Amino acid sequence: MTDKKAKKIKKIKRIRSGFFGRGVSLSKMALGSGARLAGHKLRHAFSDETARDQEFEKLLAMQAERIVSELGHLKGTLMKVGQLIAVLGENQLPPRVVDAFKSLQADSSSLPWKQVRKILNRRMGVDWPDKLIVEEEAFAAASIGQVHRATIKETGEQICLKIQYPGVEKAISSDIKALRSILKMFKFVGSDESRLDEILREVQLMMRREMDYLQEAATTQRFYDFLQNDQAFKVPRVYHEFCSKKILATQYLSGVSFQHETVQELSLDRRNAMAENLLRITWAEIFELNDLQTDTHFGNYLVQIDPDGEQDRIILLDFGAMRKFSKDFRKATAMMINACLDWNETSLEQGLRWHRVILPGDSEEIIKAYLESVWICMEMVRAPEDTEADNWEGDIYVFEKSTLLERNHRANIEIIKMTNFRGAPGEYIFLGRKLAGLYGIICNLKPRINLRKLIEVHQQNIT
């Protein structure tokens, strides 16, 4: 959906969606991993601790790259899970391991046209060529489907057809079981596995939502209606007559990525406006619509740059990975935001206890570590005198100067050591996933904004 010519997408002959085919692949992966880990322990049984750690990191990186290669062919839940590991492991795994799993975000393998045509015949009827001209080359491919540009013959309108891969929905349950093994292999599981089970239930529910394209069509329509008169945003129109549970038809919109040089070269005022609008729609998703888009990365946004410089527009794409929250969850989140605005440690701790991040019996040391992590993450809404001075120019937060990620990384490492990586509750993880992705995109814009003032303007919607 950009003005630039789409990059060449590599082809895969087929997706192993059957239980046996996926099971064999996963078994080979697990056996190979087990053998290598066992060999590592034998070879380095008498090595010093530093040497063992260094070699183990190399081995984990090699295993991650091997697993990523296999997940790219399996597609579906497991590939999506690989992407999730990159998010969950950002502060816990060696950089090379995280980079390997991050590469799944940009996976570009797709099914060949011969197979796609058969899928369209089954799902749209053999007469679909009477209505649509579909480009044979996919211009985007992801974990559960690929996208082809098409033209409606009757009107000449250009649309995007998102076509779900066959069989991926049937594999969800078995894939989730395999995911548990992968997470355990990479030591994502502490002594208490009940929280892991909670997270996996969340992942399974999210995957089922993402695979229901009729639900995604309805959500896209909801955002289209909500933002129809908002000149800062654009949402693709839905063509319901071509939609089904496994095919989504939306308007083709052209634009450029936030990472494109033309965006980077815009004036500070225009980049500030984009950053503020991204924050504004996020508050609306949580506190007005109660429909949070949790898959926040550069591929799910485009920018239409106004040649006159009056109003650049952000195109919102992909409304599959949505998450609703209970009223109490949103109330606790609002409590934490207000606590950060007011520097109220008691309210912040209450919010973290409601979210089940802080648990009964946690030591003062653990509680203090969690509070410190949140203070770091929310420093841009606090008073400048209470935070790192180098990040500020007066009451303006300078994202380009921020060392937030490095400091939060160190804080999280300490929490992991103290809690034996018990993880956070499922709801909290998806909220964190959204905010972490949002922070990355906003940092890319290098804005300088008074975020505290922005939140105070919308505070009536978060109380």
Per DSSP, what share of the residues sits in E-state strands of 2 or more residues? Answer: 5-15%
Structural class: alpha+beta
Q: Averaging pLDDT over every residue, what do you get?
A: 81
State the shape.
Answer: globular
Q: Provide the low-confidence segments as ranges.
A: 2-6, 17-24, 26-47
Quaternary organisation of the protein chains: single chain
Give the N-to-C terminal Cα separation.
38 Å
What pattern of helices and strands is seen along the backbone? HHHHHEEEEHHHEEHHEEEEHHHEEHHEH
Largest sheet: 5 strands, antiparallel
Instruction: Give the fraction of residues assigned to helices.
Output: 40-55%
Give a count of the beta strands, DSSP E runs of length 2 or more. 13
In DSSP terms, counting alpha (H) and pi (I) runs of 4 or more, how many helices?
A: 16
Radius of gyration: 23 Å
